[in-house]
Amino acid sequence: MINQNIFKSYDIRGIYPDELDKEAAFKIGRAFARQFSVKKAVIGQDARISSPELFLALARGILAEGADVYNIGQVPTECLYFTVGTYDFDAGIMITASHNPKEYNGFKIIKKAGNSIEIIRGKDLLAEVEKPDKSPKGHFDGPATISPLASLGGDFWNDYISHILSFVNLGEIKPFKVVVDASNGVAGIVLEKIKDKLPVEIISLNFEPNGNFPNHSPNPLAEGSADQIKNEIKKQKADFGLIFDGDADRIFLADENGELVRADATLLLLAKYFLEKNPGTAIAYNAICSKAVPEFIKKWGGKPVRTQVGFINVREGLLKNNGAMGGELSGHYCFKDNFYMDSGMIAFLVLLQIISKDPSTPFGTAQGKSSGQVKVSEIITEFSPYAKSPELNFQVENKEAIMEKVKEKYSDGKQDFLDGVTVEYENWWFNIRPSNTEPLLRLTIEADTQDILEKKIKELTEIITE
Q: Among 437, 435, 332, which Cα is nearest to 8's?
C-alpha cells in the first residue's frame, strides 16, 4: 500500500525508503504516464544517495505504459524545466527533495502546456496512483531501455548556459571576489561550467555533489548552514557570498560580513532590475513578505501581486498577471523569460550585475569602483526599512480555535484571509497561518520599530500559548 502522506500540495516527498521506495516510484511513474498521456518524458536527478535507485524504478514505470524515457542525468531542477520547455518532451520529473535532510527524496513533476510549463501538484496524482492496474505491464526490477538526452542531437549544456547567460551583460559585472557555497548539492555542476566565463573571482565551497551533505544541511536557512560561508567571507575578505540549496532552485545572498540577507529584500533588488527592463509590469510576492515589497514596487511603477505562501502560488500569481518575476521568503525566484519557473542560477547571475551598479541608483550608470568598494549591506539597507521577525512556529493542539481567538482579539485591525489570517495596523502587522502537515501555527510580525516588534511578539506569543 502506497503511503498517501507523500503526496503533498506542491510535489511528492518522503523519507526513503520508509515512506518512498522503488515500488512506490514504479507506481508513480505508471500513474504519471497514464494520467497525462505521456509519450516522451525526461527525468533528472539530484545528488541524493537514493536518487539512482528511484530513477530506475520511476523510469520503468513510465516505460511500462509505453512512453519513451530520456535521462538528463544529475542536474539542478531548473535544467529539467529548461529541457521540457525547450525541447520536444510531453513532460518531465525531477528526482529531488530540494532542501530537505538527506533521508528524504521526492519528485517534482511538470508537463508541457503549449509554449509554457504546468506544475503537477503531488496530491493531484494520488487518485491515479491508487487505481488498480489492469495488467502487470512489467515491474520496477524489470528491463529498462532509457535513452540519454544526447541521443536527440544538439548540445544541451551549450543551450542551457546560453539561456541563463542571456539574462545579464557580462561586461557590466565588476571583478568581485565572491564566496559561493553549493551545499554539496548540484549547483556546483553548473557553476564549474560557467565560472570561467564570469569576470569575478569565485571562491568555491562544497561544489562536489554529495548526497550525505557532509558539511551542512542542504537548507541554507537551517541552523548552522550559513556558518561556513560567513567564516569564509571574513577569512577571504570577499565582497559578498551566495549559497544554494540542494537542488539549486533556492539561493540566498550574504553581505560582506557574512550575514544572510532576508529574501524579501533580495526580491526587491531583483524586482527593481526587472521593472527597469519591463516598466509597469507585475511582480509577484507572498503574503508574509515585508510590506516594503508592495510599497517599493508601486513606487517604481510596477504592479504588486500578493499570493499565498508557496512557490507554486507565487508562480501562478505571476502567470495570471503576465508579470516579469516573483519571489518569496524561502529563496525561490521565478522569471517570465524562464517559462515562469524558478532558477537559482539566473538569480545568481542577475545579482552579480545588480551589485555591480551604483548602490544609490542601483540600475543607473555603473560607478566604475574597484572590487571591494560596493557594500551589499549598504545596498540592502534601503530595502529593509522595517523591523521584521523570522517566522515563529508554535506547536498547538487546536489550530482552528487559536486562529479564531486571534481573529477576535484583533478584530479592530484590517483583516484578510488570503493565507491564514493577516491583520494590519498603522505601525505593525502580522500573519498567522496553520501548517498543512504539522500541528503548528506559523507567525510572522513586522513593525515600524524594533520596540513595537518585540512588544507584539510577546503579546501574540502569550495569546497563542496561554
A: 437
